[in-house]
Amino acid sequence: MAQIFAYIAHKNGVVEDSAAELAVAAKKIDAAAQVTAIVTGSGSTLDSACQGAAKLYAQVWKVDNAALAYPNGEVVRKALAKIVPAGSILLVPHDTFGMDMAPGLSIKLDAAYAADIVGLDGLDGATLKAVRQEFAGMAHTHVAIDTAKGAVLTLRPGSFQPDGAGASGSVTDKSGDAGDLSAKRRFLQVVEAETGDVDITKADVLVSVGRGIEDAENISIAQELADAMGAVVSCSRPIVDAKWLEKARQVGTSGKTVKPKVYMAMGISGSFQHLGGIKGSPFIVAVNKNPKAPIFQVADVGIVENILEFMPAMTEKLG
Amino acid sequence: MEILVCVKRVPDTAENEISIKGDGTDIERDDLVYSVNEWDNYATEEAIQIRDKVGGSVTVVTVGDSESEEILRRQMAMGADKGILLADDAFEGSDGRGIASILKAEIQKGKYDLVLTGAQADDGAAQVGGMLAAMLDWPYASLVNKVDVEGGKLKIGREIEGGNQEMNEIELPCVLSIQTGINEPRYVGIRGIRKVASVEIPSHGAGDLGIAAGSVGAAAAKVKRADYFTPELGKGAEILEGSMEEKIDKLIELLKAKGGLK
Ligand SMILES: Cc1cc2nc3c(=O)[nH]c(=O)nc-3n(C[C@H](O)[C@H](O)[C@H](O)COP(=O)(O)OP(=O)(O)OC[C@H]3O[C@@H](n4cnc5c(N)ncnc54)[C@H](O)[C@@H]3O)c2cc1C
Ligand SMILES: Cc1cc2nc3c(=O)[nH]c(=O)nc-3n(C[C@H](O)[C@H](O)[C@H](O)COP(=O)(O)OP(=O)(O)OC[C@H]3O[C@@H](n4cnc5c(N)ncnc54)[C@H](O)[C@@H]3O)c2cc1C
């Protein structure tokens, strides 16, 4: 049976939510497995992250190196390629770090790669059955992953609910095994996202528009509805990419995290990156012309209509 | 700078309702509208802008079939100088690693300084760029939303959580995966496409690329799609029925109860 490892993301010495999620996912692969957490970093923040990981995993491998102080995917990949034994299954969060580091690692380890996994059905011999989504969440697939020579798997954040199980793991220092960590990509600094005039994170009611708004000129239709409701206009990412609204109004993993009471999703399909920015279980209303849009799976109330007709009609009604 | 942009032909999810075939083997593809993967448009635009600034050429490449030629022409109408189609029966059923191996073989036949991919495509895997870089042993950066050429190096920004930007310096040659929003891809009209309609697009197969049969394609795939399925859903949304007027009345009532309306 393959050994299972989990790559632990951490910030300022605190492990991220994914650490507990990967522990649950590992059990779904093999309920009896002794899973090892791998924590890379440098100095005292690494030590506290290792302590956090030891509360979730029976074994923790610590890799301390000044070159790992910031999680540069190019450097972490080099370290893991040396440290992860051949034939292992490695779990990594499917976030901006995992997307950067993990595909290349699967090549270096000559292992299978499956990304953005949302469900795991367990091992059958060396074949791991997993669930993925395709076409922006409009289709689900079962994939069979050949783990005979190991596998690198990235898991969608939020897909595996922590089960509250604890551990009191021991930390082993593997720093000496990391080898040469020089890389051709050097981290310089992080530039914080600019703040805008509006703060959508404080709004109780959001009228949020997606690509269904179709044109820059139609944004005013949403603004009018928001005015009539006493709400604030927010949006999905394509609206910001098209420069129809400013970045500060974007909801999602690469935008703002909002906690409104009511969230009106107008012409938004419901991608996981978008939903990742909606917290605090608001009452979600979805209006979409496609009855199969994934947003209807998470909304409380759904309306199948053209938003360009629906919004003006509702504004008028509220008049 | 010699730039290669990898592009994929995908069903346009904004234009189509995706439905699964009765036997679950595939989605219904007959009536689908296809286009170039959204992210790849940004990659092509970025390549054209870099070329226009520092000189060189832009080549677009896809692993596909004869129908994929249309997306190469579209990118050439945007301003790419050349298109290359990689097509062979032996490529069918490749997983991400297979696609990356095929692209690698083509790259090694040329002399490229920079290879761009989209951050992700319709399978949402975001895998091909990183695999390709690892196979070439070139440095890689994903989710790139800023590129500045500085001598023999690039200064790049990566988009990370919360929309923050991670700045890096990266050596050439390298592979970058491009994130949406990095630029505003230019519009291509019918006339632009007509202009490149008769340009010859070379097609390379496994033999031309020196790819051994069985090293790519379905047989080599370590990840196999077993089926498509419709998941058992939670309760899902309560769908409001009736005329537009009735739906709005019902919604207003619900919103008042939830504190969404005064
Ligand atoms: C690393 C990364 C980070 C990302 N971060 C974010 C993020 O922070 N936030 C975010 O939103 N996205 C983010 N994305 C993008 C995300 O994957 C989706 O592409 C995006 O959320 C889709 O936006 P959308 O729902 O508006 O558009 P689409 O998916 O195109 O959906 C449009 C919807 O509108 C419906 N529609 C069309 N016309 C009408 C009409 N007239 N009336 C009613 N309905 C209509 C369609 O049926 C469809 O369901 C990120 C992607 C990546 C790779
Ligand atoms: C009929 C059919 C059967 C399939 N069977 C399998 C299977 O059994 N197992 C499996 O894992 N996958 C299978 N696939 C998926 C297919 O092989 C994918 O194209 C592959 O996994 C890479 O696409 P992606 O969406 O994952 O790319 P991503 O890694 O998400 O795309 C990132 C970037 O890589 C580049 N890129 C991706 N694909 C191409 C391409 N074809 N040409 C040029 N550049 C490209 C683009 O720049 C793109 O923006 C099948 C597909 C079809 C249509």
Provide a compact summary of the structure.
Helices cover 26% and strands 29% of the residues of chain A.
Strand count, sense and closure of the main sheet of chain B?
9 strands, mixed
Tell me the domain tally of chain B. 1
Number of helices of chain B: 7
* Helix and strand pattern of chain A: EEEHEHEHEHEEEEEEEEHEHEHEHEH
**Beta fraction of chain B:** 25-35%
What is the radius of gyration of chain A? Answer: 22 Å
What binds here, in terms of ligands, is: flavin-adenine dinucleotide
Q: What amount of the residues of chain A lies in strands?
A: 25-35%
Structural category of chain B is alpha/beta
What value does the average pLDDT of chain A take? 96
The third-level CATH topology of chain B is Rossmann fold
**Helix/strand-derived class of chain A?**
alpha/beta
Q: So, CATH architecture of chain B?
A: 3-Layer(aba) Sandwich
Walk me through the topology.
The complex is a heterodimer of chains A (319) and B (262).
Chain A: E1 4-7, E2 10-11, E3 14-15, H1 18-29, E4 36-41, H2 43-54, E5 59-64, H3 73-83, E6 89-93, H4 96-108, E7 112-117, E8 119-124, E9 127-134, E10 139-146, E11 151-155, E12 170-173, E13 185-191, E14 205-209, H5 219-229, E15 232-235, H6 237-241, E16 262-266, H7 272-275, E17 283-287, H8 295-298, E18 301-303, H9 307-318
Chain B: E1 2-6, E2 9-11, E3 34-36, H1 38-54, E4 57-63, H2 69-78, E5 82-86, H3 96-109, E6 114-118, H4 128-136, E7 140-150, E8 153-159, E9 165-171, E10 174-178, H5 190-195, E11 203-204, H6 206-209, E12 223-229, E13 238-239, H7 244-258
Helix pairs in contact in B: 3-4
